[in-house]
Amino acid sequence: MNFKTKSFVALLIISIFLLSSCEVYQTLYGTGPQKPVQKEVNEPTKVVRVEGEKAKDSEYLARTVYAAASPTEHDAFKVGPSPLGPFDKGKSLGYTLGQWLGAGGIGIYSVDGDKAELSLSFKKLVPNGVYTVWCSRMTFPPEPKIVDMPCGKEDGSENSFTADEKGNGDFSLKFKPLEESTKETASIIAIAYHSDGKTYGVSPGDFGLNSHIQTFFLLPQQSSNATKFEVPIKFVNHIDAGFPEQDVFVEVEEEETAPTGEMVKEEEKTGEENKAEEKPKTEEKPTDESGVKPEVITNPNEAMTEEKPKEKPVVVVVQETDLVNLVPKAEDPDKNTNLVFTFTSPLNEKGEWQTNYGDAGEYTITVTASDSESTTSRDVLIIVNKKEESPKIDVAKPIESGLAIDEIQSVDFSVVASDLNKDPLTYVWKLDGVDDGTDSKYTYHATYDDAGTHTVKVDVSDGLSSVSKIWSVDVKNVNRKPVLEKIEDIKAKETDKIVVTALASDDDKDSIEYSISDQRFKQEGNVFTWQTDYDSAGTYQVTVTASDGKDKSEKTFTATVENVNRPPVIIDIVQKK
Questions:
Q1: Residue 21 pairs with which residues in a beta bridge?
Q2: Bridge partners (DSSP) listed for residue 524
Q3: What local confidence, expressed as pLDDT, does residue 463 receive?
Q4: Residue of 21 and 380 predicted with greater confidence
Q5: How many angstroms separate the CA atoms of 542 and 558, rounded?
Q6: Phi, psi of 488 (to 5 degrees)
Q7: Which of 16-20, 40-44, 302-306, 434-438 has the highest mean pLDDT?
Q8: Is 194:130 a contact under the CB 8 Å cutoff?
Q9: DSSP state letter for 249
Q10: Where are the alpha helices (DSSP H) in 95-240?
């Protein structure tokens, strides 16, 4: 065999060996590392309305709320075919159901004849959220109906406000009185949050899509036909009112088609792969040059560690002043019963936390179980809801509720108030129902026109609830003297007629009576007349008096009557004898 023949045979053997080796390698190891193919997890595409106890469950309160993908009509009385949904899921609103339901508000609706005023204050709204206020009319079942109307002007130009960065908001409006509520229909005051940041004038927008009624108040029936009255307002949400939540939704629970991260094989396989599958999985690979036999992997997927999805935190919901007392339970596969639990702040080493006023918020803590060699941890979301307490007036001055002062006197009022929630307090002083001060102190200055009984009231508010103190002030009349104008001195001659007109005013509008000290003057009302004669020469001091029946004023003037020489009178002429 020559050299060329030998070389050809050698190359042929090497080629056959390489092909055979590739087949064995593929048989043992497959076609090489493949990118894991993960089954898709079906994200919920539907949302539903929640109601009743489910809406108060801690697990639901911690869920994110969504808008619907299209407008959803209100169906609070559940008369439609599918009142709770499901509906197509829209955008996330960015907060939980518990935060949405935590909003609240108070206010006063006052009516005086054909005039009405609405003064509202809200807390825990959507921070910087755009809101509108609606004065709607509801017809109760069996044929329920709601007609939405903006409060104030019909074009909706007076019914919007924006919450501040903390979710606080105020709204006030003077408008015509609302239609009175009856057994069949009722007037509603409702506020709508606009998730698109827009308002729509005469329309509230599309409910469920971009407009979401967060809280409302049904005006009660009036027990009398009074034309002047006040109605205290405390807003509620749909759940507290016994209805399903209408305009925000939670996701529908759906079964996942495969656990997250599960490896799946490709459906289509090459011929080489099919051939490799037919060979025993335990076939050994030839030893390498070092004589070390390579490890045989019977299932490549076993070499990949599946990452477990992170467990959802346990949710605990309490109110301020409640005791949080966590009692964890754990099992040890090694039957170790001496497990030690630790808790992160604000819980103590016993898993306890005594909440107090001002602790409202969400807290994520970690509970760790240890058997001295290894540890396991679980997060707990503690939701502390605010326990609303009304402010308290600790000191009020004057102590007496009934006071008496004279006109033009004044009286000082003051209160010292506190709030267990540590909320900032506002003060509104009202004199006879009209706002007249916003400090913790107030002074009432009575005027000459204030004779009668008056009320001084202070309202102390934390934004959600308020406390009041009322005083009654009896103002006694103080008489004001009539004011008599000056009368100038008079000079006249005998036989002249002297006329004096007295002019006086009285700030109390009392009737005035006049008099004069010289009887030579004849009186007609406030006009005095003296017809002098040739015997009237002389100087006279005359006083004019004006009286309101209680007090009097006087003015004195001088009347000088000059002598007028009279010619002699010839009595008779006779002849001298």
A1: none
A2: 527
A3: 84
A4: 380
A5: 6
A6: -70, 155
A7: 434-438
A8: yes
A9: B
A10: 97-101
Q: Which fold has domain 392-476?
A: Immunoglobulin-like (2.60.40)
Q: 306: which residues sit within 8 A by CB, 6+ positions away?
A: 259, 261, 262, 263
- Number of CB atoms found within 10 A of residue 412's CB: 10
Residue 160 to residue 512: CA distance in whole angstroms = 57
Q: Round to whole Å and give the CA distance between 506 and 459.
A: 39
In this structure, which long-range contacts are made by residues 357-361, counting pairs with CB atoms below 8 Å and at least 24 apart in sequence?
Answer: 357/320, 357/321, 357/387, 357/389, 357/420, 357/421, 357/422, 358/320, 358/421, 358/422, 359/320, 359/384, 360/320, 360/384, 360/385, 360/386, 360/387
Q: Are 306 and 261 in contact (CB under 8 A)?
A: yes
The answer to whether 303 and 29 are in contact (CB under 8 A) is no
**pTM of the prediction?**
0.43
Could you tell me which of 314, 245, 319 has the C-alpha nearest to residue 76?
A: 245
Query: How far apart, in Å, do the first and last CA atoms of the chain sit?
Result: 226
In CATH, the number for domain 314-385 is: 2.60.40.10
Whole-angstrom distance, CA of residue 106 vs CA of residue 322:
25
- Quote the tokens at residue 377: 């941890």
Whether 339 and 370 have beta carbons less than 8 Å apart is answered as yes
String of b and e for 166-176 (b: at least 16 CB within 10 Å)? Answer: ebbbebebeee
| Amino acid at site 207 | F
> Residues 418, 427: contact at Cβ < 8 Å?
no
Report the CATH fold assignment for 483-562: Immunoglobulin-like (2.60.40)
SS3 label, residue 6: helix
Distance CA 255, CA 258 (A): 9
Q: Is the pLDDT of residue 36 over 90?
A: no
Cβ-contact 175, 109 below 8 angstroms:
no
3-state helix, strand, coil in the chain (%, to 5): 10, 40, 50
Other residues' Cβ atoms within 10 Å of the Cβ of residue 153: 13
pLDDT for res 248:
95
- Report yes or no: 71 and 249 within 8 Å, Cβ to Cβ: no
pLDDT per position as a tens digit, 341-359: 999 999 999 999 999 888 8
CATH 2.60.40.10-classified regions of the chain:
314-385, 392-476, 483-562
Please choose, from the candidates 464, 102, 66, 124, the residue with its C-alpha nearest in 3D space to the C-alpha of residue 317.
102
On the CB side of 205, CA atoms within 13 Å amount to 25
In this structure, are residues 212 and 247 in contact, taking their beta carbons and an 8 Å threshold? yes
Residue 563 near residue 550, CB atoms below 8 Å: no
For residue 108, the surrounding DSSP H or E stretch is: strand 104-112
